[in-house]
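Sample pair:
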Amino acid sequence: MVSLKSIQTEVDVCYLYKILAENEEDLNVATVFRQMSNIEHSHALAFLAKNNLDESHLPKPSGRAKTLHLIGKWFGYDYILGVLLDTEKSVSSSILKARKQTQTQESLSDTAHVAILKNILSYNTKVSGANLARFEKRHRSVGGNALRAAVLGGNDGLVSNFSLVMGIAGATSGQSEVLLAGLAGLLAGALSMALGEWISVKSSQELYENQMQLEMEELETNPEGEQQELALIYMAKGIPEAQAKTMAADLMQNKSQAHDMLIKEELGINPEDLKGSAMEAALTSFFLFAIGAIIPVFPFFFWSGMQAVIISTVLSAAGLFLIGAAITLFTGKSVWYSGMRQVIFGLAAAAITFGIGKLIGISVAG
């Protein structure tokens, strides 16, 4: 029997692809999303049949799916596609894991959802090259969207500074000491995150630029070899050898286009990714970390002693729960399960540092 959770997942995915279709400006791409919605709907009906249920038992889209729709309005509907592809990847991984445990033979359908979507686009002759490129850009953005960065950045700031503040609060009874340590932790952590993000983006850009330059030099010094590589790339896509060689020869007439093709297919580099600003990424990381880190410090501006500790703990626990709930947008887990897990881990970390702070404070005082 198929679990009702699996049916709900198919209903949600069907609903979200329909949302994408309704908000897609290009009619051909909208048709693709509508076809995917129909495919997912058929999966849900098939799952119902396996459970001996008729279509009247088909559930409504979940609160998670409706929340994603709302977030799509704020962050853009490309974000929804990213979550959908993440979901399908997770489902495929679970199927493959179950097959290994039950020692059953793998099927092409196990990992077909993303492949189906890409194939519909690839073989739909009405979809322009520009739209194909736009879809590929969306596909590559999976796992790197703004909301995910916001959640994880805020979580890092909240957990680390909450633990720091509780440690200092345990070791001292002074309000000013905790404020000083909390603000120092906020700035140090945010600056560290910003610098790390800047170095990461900048070094990636420099590496890609070096690889692209090397590919251009190879294209200039050994055009015959690069033409053979282009032909092999086309053949790997299922194009007959003779046709692949002809297409490669035609493409070599324009070295700029040949270079773009080689760096994309051979090196896996998207030139658009090099346009990102390292400084923008650094500033984003700084502010996301700082937003989370200010929560446990805030009460100490107005209160001191155990009263401030309790209020800080309550506010931090609420923040941790909201972060855990937000994470369910990516994982599909229960809001209560994910939220309470985040609260328990965060409180445990803070309790440990508070206890260590108490011990240090007593030993120093003694």
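The CA atoms of residues 72 and 197 lie 25 Å apart.
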